[in-house]
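Homework-ish question, so no full write-ups if that breaks the rules, but can someone show me the predicted structure for this set?
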Amino acid sequence: MRENIVITGFMGSGKSIVAEKLARKLGMEFIDMDQIIEKQGMSISDIFARYGEKYFREQENKLVKELSQKENMVIATGGGTLLSADNAKMLSEKGEIICLYADSKVLYNRVKRKDNRPLLRGGNLLDRINQLIEERKKIYDNIKLKIDTSDLNIQEVVDRIVDILKNKG
Ligand code: S3P
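A: Not a homework solution, just the prediction itself:
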């Protein structure tokens, strides 16, 4: 059994698609945390609208607890999962955490067509992205393994992760 690989980072950084392709390449199980939470019957937007962010974070925390019992998975977190120190601790004890990031204008271009992210709604989208990045800077900066995906395609990000993990031994 191999330890888990946890792909985290801001909304639009490419977590889900990169984690899915990486899992396929390495023959590991792909887990998308947001998808699992939505499988309980409600979209992330509806969960936020009906029960609020705090409830959503509790669902994330419950899921992290479950996932931390397992191995051999590539996990795409939600963009805010690592804001919880408890989640960060559990995920890092059982796996390697890799943070994807990108220039805020690149993130803007990737997320602007979708309206499925409650934290980005209302007001000017680029301002909101910059504000949230600023608020979360410490959390993302704290993660040792980071990849700037601004100028990379999905395959290049996957290859870079494989290289990083190889070099770590
Ligand atoms: C969030 C990111 C979203 C989703 C929720 C909250 C965040 O996931 O978990 O809307 O706090 O950054 P993606 O990063 O996959 O969009």
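Now go work out the reasoning yourself. Hint: The chain has a mean pLDDT of 96.
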